[in-house]
Amino acid sequence: MNPTTIDGAPAADGLAVASRAFAAAAASLVPEGEPVLVQFEAPRNPAFGDYASNVALQLAKRARRAPQQLAGEIVERAYAAEPALRELLSEAVPVGGFINVRLAPAHWQNVVGTILREGADFGRGAPTGERISLEFGSANPTGPLLVVQGRTLSLGDSIANALRFTGAEVTVEWIVNDAGSQVETLGRSVYARYRQLDEPDFPFPEDGYPGDYLVPLAERLRARDGERWVAAPEDEWLPAIGRFALDALIAEQQATCARFGVHYDRWQSEKAMHESGAVERGIADLRARGLIFDHDGAVWMRATQFGDDKDRVVVRSDGRPTYYGADVAYHFDKLERTDRAILILGPDHHGYIARLEALGTAFGRPGAIKVMLAQQMTLERDGEIVSLSKRAGTVLTLDEILDEVGVDAARFFFILSNADSPMTFDLSLAVRQSSDNPVYYVQYGHARIASIERKAPPELLARAVRGEHLDLLRHEKELALARRLAEFPEVVRAVAAHLAPARLARYAQAVASDFHQFYMDCRVLDEAEPELSVARLALVHAAKAILAGALRLAGVNAPERMDREPEPAA
After folding, report:
1. Rounded Cα–Cα distance for residues 262 and 256 (Å)
2. 117: three-class secondary structure by DSSP
3. For residues 467 and 542, is the Cβ–Cβ distance under 8 A?
4. Running DSSP on this structure, what letter comes out for residue 210?
5. Torsion angle, CA of 291/294/298/304, rounded to 10 degrees?
6. Residue spans of beta strands (DSSP E) within 165-218
7. Which class would CATH give 13-103?
8. In this structure, are strands 340-345 and 131-135 parallel, antiparallel, or unpaired?
């Protein structure tokens, strides 16, 4: 971190000047050596100030002083050398070896003004030129999307939104696994359901896909083709019905994704990739690097050179590519098009992490492939665990979840925990209209502000949007809300850098909480104080923009009104 970069807030002038001044003061109190950098972070307890630095604790040994004494001397020298600090900071206090600072109200007033001017672009990064492939979802095309895929979709789409907001060019990709034996298994399963429409005792294949979700497909097949396939030989009906079922299920998956607000740039067919020669091109590149060898008629990759527990077959002796051979093709293609590739896989893919990330190194791009696992998820309803078994055919589809709790609640709940943490999805809580429902709490904050603005005299609201009288924002709860709004750019950058959308959900809840606390203590519309009303309208309008921005990145609507809730008085 450089001296003008502040964790938790944009590095604005006041804090940047303070950082440089304290760094210069600290450097004058220690022997020459390592450069002195002052890092400020927002303390967990706001009672300690807006930001705090532990520079005195870090330098106490070099300075041969107690941390508290050194902190006091740094503050004293900084103020002496930089008189402007008295206007930029309302206080700088040494406490327990830390330097706690509060920025002057003008700083936070300026933040509100900036949000009003920039609106939805507040904190948006300039294009970086970085190209990123982000693959998530990629469920087998053998059934509807299940609730577990909903978590991956929410995580992936929110990460993509954050990466784009910070300036990256992101290609969102789905790999359609349509080249393996599972397509034949799907065709046999649908054929059995098709025959069972008239012959209930027709045997179902032992390795078939159970569950009732294939029955409607069988009915559609019967409506389209009648009895055509009853007497047809297997070599005719198997490829035809397999293709019919595959196309229908992929279309259903695409429709569910669209309903969920997730849109892909590429739906890449594995079969088409094989037919295009992509596997051969990827293997040829690795062979040129000395990483491919032939043994027992098969083609192998020297995966052990990259930490794998054994070398991997990429093409079987009968000429068919393995799954790992397909992975070689995918990632060779991705790294030709982009600077790095990110994949979000399910919890049962732990063994894939090292071997997939190793492909980046194998292709001469170490660190270019990042694999994340979305950990296990538990569903709960009315305090009871919802038991699911795909093998037994007792599945809960993503569409059923959306029917029950809605898109907004599902999208928000799925990102309450990051991918590396198991999560429990409380379906009962997700539909509850109360403050303990996190998505309802955040959306109600936005709707409450919209209600205030509808009640505001139009001329006052127009002046507020122009940022008039912001210098009147000095109340403790006003400044606390402005401080929280200032964090938005850094929060989004952290989501993008750490691939951690839970930070976005937590931040949206914190903004809503600070707004509700402000609203309880500070009357927004007061006929006796029109100028203060303008200032507070400006603050809530800025808060509305930030709430809308956070929800938009999470793929959640920011409603102007909330059903079945009385609008609050302003």
Report:
1. 9
2. helix
3. no
4. -
5. -40
6. 169-176
7. alpha beta
8. parallel
- Residuewise pLDDT in 10s, the chain (570 residues): 333 333 333 435 678 888 999 999 999 999 887 888 898 888 888 788 889 999 999 999 999 999 999 999 999 999 999 988 988 999 999 999 999 999 999 999 999 999 999 999 999 999 999 999 999 999 889 999 999 899 999 999 999 999 999 999 999 999 998 887 889 999 999 999 999 999 999 999 999 998 788 999 999 999 999 999 999 999 999 999 999 999 999 999 999 999 999 999 999 999 898 889 988 999 999 999 999 999 999 999 999 998 888 899 999 999 888 989 989 999 999 999 999 999 999 888 887 888 899 999 999 999 999 999 999 899 999 989 887 655 445 578 999 999 999 999 999 999 999 999 999 999 999 999 989 999 999 999 999 999 999 999 999 999 999 999 999 999 999 999 999 999 999 999 999 999 999 999 999 999 999 999 999 999 999 999 999 999 999 999 999 999 999 999 999 999 999 865 533 434
Quick one: tokens of 570?
């302003």
Residues 6+ apart with CB under 8 A from 354: 306, 307, 308
Backbone angles phi, psi at 268, to 5 degrees: -95, 115
- Show me where the domains of the chain are located: 13-103
In whole angstroms, what is the distance from residue 570 CA to residue 560 CA?
Answer: 15
Question: Phi and psi of 341, rounded to 5°?
Answer: -125, 135
Distant-in-sequence contacts of 191-195, Cβ < 8 A, 24+ apart? 191/229, 191/237, 191/238, 191/241, 193/217, 193/218, 194/218, 194/221, 194/222, 194/229, 194/241, 195/230
- Residue 306's Cβ-side half-sphere holds a number of Cα atoms within 13 Å equal to 22
What is the rounded CA–CA span in Å between residue 395 and residue 105? 55
Contact 31, 80 (CB under 8 A): no
| Phi, psi angles (nearest 5°) of residue 511 | -65, -45
